[in-house]
Specification:
With 408 residues, this protein is an all-alpha fold. Among the domains are: 27 residues, no CATH class; 62 residues, Leucine-rich Repeat Variant; 93 residues, Leucine-rich Repeat Variant (Alpha Horseshoe), CATH 1.25.10; 94 residues. Helix content is 66%, strand content 0%. It contains 24 helices and no strands. The chain is globular and about 70 Å long. The two termini are 51 Å apart. The N terminus is likely disordered.
């Protein structure tokens, strides 16, 4: 909520009472009409930040904002119509149900962004009214691929027709990047029902599509968990581009992928081991059960594999305490990037790496490379800060009261 200029009376209240009376806040708050006007003004000049700010505020207000947004759905400016419809869709049912006829009519708008936003809004409201479903059906054949992507997602929302998933996956290959981006976003919201088709596309589809398909699966996060067994097999495959794409997806699966990835740390292929390490690093703290095996490999790898291993242990953070001795050894490595990464990893591990402060101090004072010295200084400062916080917490009488028998 944006608060306007406070009156001298409100300021006096702050000084005397230490708070602003609710009545003053309500009087000075931005009205719905003012926020709608701000959305309109920002849309006319395409100020993305202000458009988002006003739209978010109207969505937060909800039902009370609906009449104001409906009043500008027929504005002469395409951007204004687009933003008003998008906000109504985000408000959704039941508050914005009254706007469904306007959304349906907007499916025939001359502007592609407006048509697409109308389809998305109807999908967000899961509208099943005959007229609205008919309008969405027509948009599935729109001349603009971006609009087709929005329409197929709305069709999925209204009907559950699995053909929509296939069409959206095909649109990932669209030359129009907006269409591809919209299709990816929509598929990520579809979630589990789309996983099988996407994995098949990633493995057997054209190489140019793999990155977008992998990104779509990655966006799903744990909802793509059913793909883990197949993705792990792909990680062992000879096609390193597909394997790299699989690693990106596995890194978004959280704890469910850790056991399989931990097993791949013993794979005969160096590339498989390296990709498993990267994925475990993406998982972060939930991959702590693999930290011991990862730390055990520090003395046996070098070059890029060592750098990725050190970086991944740092991302696991405080759960990777077992790696501290090995990381201290890496502080003396001949390669400056490895030394710098080890400093950063120890800083991320934090107070649990307090045994490394002496070694970090030596690096901070004597390393020949400036960025490594600075990384060591930052790591030491973070470890000391966390240790001091822990001591202060232990001494806090509110959180750790002194036992009665020890009080004077």
């Amino acid at each position: 909520m944006r608060i306007g200029r406070l009156s001298w009376l409100a300021l006096l209240s702050v000084a005397v009472c230490g708070a602003v009376p609710n009545v003053t806040l309500a009087a000075e708050a931005e009205s719905v009409g003012e926020i709608v006007s701000r959305l309109v003004s920002a849309s006319r000049i395409y100020d993305k930040r202000q458009m988002r700010s006003a739209s978010d505020r109207l969505v937060e207000i909800g039902a009370e904002a609906v009449p104001g947004l409906m009043s500008v759905v027929d504005d002469v400016d395409d951007n204004v119509r687009w933003q008003a419809i998008a906000a109504l869709g985000r408000i959704g049912r039941p508050a914005a149900s009254v706007s469904v006829p306007l959304m349906t009519a907007a499916c025939a708008d001359r502007d592609a962004d407006v048509r697409g936003a109308a389809a998305v809004a109807l999908g967000q409201m899961r509208v099943k009214e005959v007229a609205a479903v008919r309008a969405v059906r027509l948009l599935r054949r729109d001349e603009q691929p971006m609009v087709r992507a929005d329409a197929w997602w709305a069709w999925w929302q209204a009907t559950g027709d699995r053909k929509a998933i296939t069409e959206l996956v095909d649109l990932l290959s669209a030359k129009d990047w907006l269409a591809s981006s919209h299709a990816s976003h929509h598929l990520s919201t579809v979630g589990t029902p789309a996983v099988k088709v996407l994995v098949e596309k990633m493995i057997a589809g054209p190489s140019r599509d793999r990155r977008q398909v992998a990104e779509t699966l990655r966006r799903m996060g744990p909802r793509a968990v059913t793909a883990i067994p197949k993705l792990l097999r792909v990680l062992d495959g000879k096609d390193r581009h597909v394997a790299a794409a699989a690693a990106r997806v596995l890194g978004a699966q959280g704890a469910a992928a850790v056991i399989g990835l931990r097993d791949r740390l013993d794979a005969p292929r160096a590339d498989t081991r390296r990709l498993a390490v990267v994925a475990l690093g993406e998982i972060g703290p939930p991959a702590s059960s693999a930290a011991g095996k990862m730390a055990g490999r520090l003395e046996f790898v070098d070059g890029r594999e060592l750098l990725q291993l050190v970086t991944a242990l740092g991302r696991i953070g405080s759960k990777a305490t077992v790696a501290v001795p090995g990381l201290v050894v890496v502080l003396k490595h001949s390669h400056r990037d490895s030394r710098g990464a080890a400093c950063e990893a120890l800083g991320r591990i934090g107070s649990a790496a307090h045994g490394a402060t002496e070694a970090l101090s030596a690096v901070a004072e004597g390393d020949p490379v400036d960025f490594v010295r600075r990384a060591a200084q930052r790591a030491n400062a973070e470890i000391i800060r966390q240790r001091a916080g822990q001591v202060a917490e232990k001494l806090n009488p509110e959180t750790n009261p002194v036992p009665d028998d020890l009080r004077e």
